[in-house]
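Need a sequence for this fold. Nothing fancy.
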């Protein structure tokens, strides 16, 4: 990978991290309790609880992705970024561009 390509991937990762952090800050479940029955009725309360569950699941995925992306940045700093964790061959640039937190190459992923 050329330094330019590496810089490009880093900018993708930085943008994605910023995006996730904004999204996580916006819908903090603690700040949005489920509304009481009175106003919206039993069924819609169930709906909103379900929506909250989905929201929590999405946040878990986002936190995981955030963790992976930060690990990717660490690997960049150490110079080990883009090397397959299994077979140690370089991971294709196209794969990293599409999935910047990839730790294994396409052959090992199959
Ligand atoms: Zn591999």
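Here you go.
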């Amino acid at each position: 990978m050329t330094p330019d390509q590496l810089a490009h991937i880093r900018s993708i990762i930085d943008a994605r991290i910023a995006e996730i952090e904004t999204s996580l800050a916006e819908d903090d479940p603690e700040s949005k309790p489920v509304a009481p029955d009175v106003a919206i009725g039993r069924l819609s309360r169930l709906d909103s609880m379900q929506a909250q569950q989905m929201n929590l699941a999405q946040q878990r995925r986002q936190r995981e992705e955030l963790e992976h992306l930060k690990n990717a940045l660490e690997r960049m700093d150490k110079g080990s970024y883009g090397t397959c964790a299994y077979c140690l061959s370089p991971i294709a640039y196209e794969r990293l561009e599409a999935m910047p937190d990839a730790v294994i190459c396409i052959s090992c992923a199959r």
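For context: The first helix runs from residue 3 to 26.
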